[in-house]
Amino acid sequence: MPSAPVAAIPYFLKMEADHSSTAADSDDGDDSDFALMERIGSGDHAAFRQLVERHQHAVIGTVAKMLGNAAESEDIAQQVFLRIWRHAKRYRPEAKFTTYLFTITRNLVFNETRRKSRKKEVSADERAENSHQLIAASPDRQPDAEILQAELQGAVDAAIAGLPHTQRLAVVLRRYEQLSYEEIAAVLDLSVSAVKSLLFRARTTLRETLSGYLEG
After folding, report:
1. Are 216 and 129 in contact (CB under 8 A)?
2. Would the pTM count as exceeding 0.85?
3. Parent domain of 99
């Protein structure tokens, strides 16, 4: 397997700030993920770059919601795509590519979560406090409705961050990535009924945690 493309890996970390290059580099944007993986398996750097552009935001967003740290999310996302590059030749399209993608993401995120738990990860309460500090930094710039919406979003993020990590990932994949129960079950290596049970418990916890906002 050729070495990972030097330019393609860090490139996806800069895409948030530069969208102008995406359209020019995506002339073959109709290629399926499976077709791209076949090309990547042959060492095609352009196909790898296109795949990264297509899925980077979903991966970075999912990792960020799981770990609560933007810098760490970029590091883990980079590891996800490096792993895809390294194992592309052995990839077989037995399910949706996104199932494969989020399974790799799950493994790396859970590894990081376990590592951080041994180092006493920052508590959900502290993260919530940080969110409120960010919101309060410039109150004169936002109408009251926007302040309240930002505060609510911070509370929702903190509540999700306080869930057990398997419940948290199920909620993130369902709420933000709109994955089906079947896809989430495949990513988490659980039955569909187990996923539904996870989500039910998570939603119950979130309703209790956010009851002050819901009653308002």
Report:
1. no
2. no
3. 1-121
